[in-house]
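Students often ask why inverse folding is considered easier than folding. One informal answer: many sequences map to the same fold, so there is more than one right answer. In these notes we will look at a single instance of the problem. The structure comes first.
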C-alpha cells in the first residue's frame, strides 16, 4: 500500500496506468453488503449523515468505518438488529457478505470485519383509529 488514505491496486498489465481505490468506496461496498443481510434493521450514522439523508441523498457508507493499515484492511460496521433474530448468526452473515462483496468487486481481502451491534429495533405497529361510518 502506497499511502494510508488511498489503496493502490497491484496490476497484471504494467504500463497501462495505476488503479487506486479510496477508503470511501470500500465503505460504500461494505455498507450495501451489510444492509442486504436479513435481520439488519439499519446502520448507525452520525448527525451529518442523518441530515444528508433527510435532504434526499442516500449515504451507503453510513455506519461503516474503514481503516487501511500496513497489514491490511480493517472494516468496522455499526448496525441495528431486528428484534428476535439471532445476533451471532446475523453478524456472521454480515461478515461473510462483506468479505465476499469486497473480494468480488475489488479483489481485496479484508483482514478484519468487526460487527458492532449498537441497538435493537422493535416492530412498531400502527394502530389505525376505527371510524364509525353511519350514513
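Output (designed amino acids):
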Amino acid at each position: 500500500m502506497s499511502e494510508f488514505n488511498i489503496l493502490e491496486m497491484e496490476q497484471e498489465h504494467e504500463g497501462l496506468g495505476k488503479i487506486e481505490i479510496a477508503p470511501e468506496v470500500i465503505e460504500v461496498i461494505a455498507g450495501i453488503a451489510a444492509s442486504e443481510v436479513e435481520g439488519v434493521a439499519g446502520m448507525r450514522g452520525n448527525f451529518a449523515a442523518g441530515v444528508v439523508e433527510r435532504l434526499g441523498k442516500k449515504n451507503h457508507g453510513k455506519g461503516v468505518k474503514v481503516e487501511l493499515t500496513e497489514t491490511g484492511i480493517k472494516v468496522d460496521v455499526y448496525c441495528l438488529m431486528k428484534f428476535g433474530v439471532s445476533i451471532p448468526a446475523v453478524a456472521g452473515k454480515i461478515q461473510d457478505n462483506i468479505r465476499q462483496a469486497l473480494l468480488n468487486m475489488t479483489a481485496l481481502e479484508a483482514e478484519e470485519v468487526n460487527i458492532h451491534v449498537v441497538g435493537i429495533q422493535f416492530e412498531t405497529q400502527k394502530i389505525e383509529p376505527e371510524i364509525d361510518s353511519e350514513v
